[in-house]
Design goal:
The protein is 14% helix and 25% strand. By secondary structure, it is of the alpha/beta class. The model has no long low-confidence stretch (mean pLDDT 97). It binds iron/sulfur cluster.
């Protein structure tokens, strides 16, 4: 089960979006130098469809995207909730994974943005040109050719 510590509106995490960022707990990645080690603990409130609907209702008309920050311990639940965000809340969905590789079998159709990569202090976060992390926009072309990942990490470097 996914749990969250807190949430907030953010403007810089995803270019061109007003994002409701939900910080998930139980992070299994354990990056040295992690900015939020309290998120390693199994604490917080359960995150499910009803909780997301309640959060969205607090910001009527303001939010264009919901980002699930973390959740690598239960990627199936992340995918299910991202599908819900798109289908039932009518918003773009984003997942911030701490892993380099996406889980096998993940259906990109349920995502509009995906960030990958652990935090490595000497390389820096997304705003660093040396970063190992990547932010992808998931394009959904019409015509049945399937979702396509577009690396938009350089949007943080302008
Ligand atoms: S993935 Fe994020 S929350 Fe998890 S240890 Fe790394 S920096 Fe911290």
């Amino acid at each position: 089960m996914l749990k969250y510590y807190n949430y907030d509106i953010v403007f810089q995490e995803i270019p061109d979006e007003v994002t409701l960022a939900v910080n998930l707990t139980g992070c299994p990645v354990h990056c040295p130098g992690c900015h939020s080690p309290h998120l390693w603990k199994d604490i917080g409130e359960p995150l499910d469809e009803a909780a997301l609907r309640t959060m969205q209702a607090l910001y009527p008309g303001e939010v264009t995207c919901i980002a699930l920050m973390g959740g690598d311990a239960d990627s199936a639940a992340v995918e299910r909730l991202c599908a819900f965000i798109q289908r039932e809340l009518g918003l773009r969905s984003s997942w911030w994974s701490g892993r380099d590789e996406l889980p096998e079998g993940i259906d990109l159709a349920h995502f509009d943005y995906i960030k990958t990569g652990p935090y490595i202090a000497e390389l820096g976060g997304l705003k660093s040109r040396r970063t190992n992390q990547r932010l992808y926009r998931v394009d959904h072309p019409s015509g049945g050719s399937g979702p396509v990942l577009q690396d938009i990490t350089n949007r943080f470097w302008r």
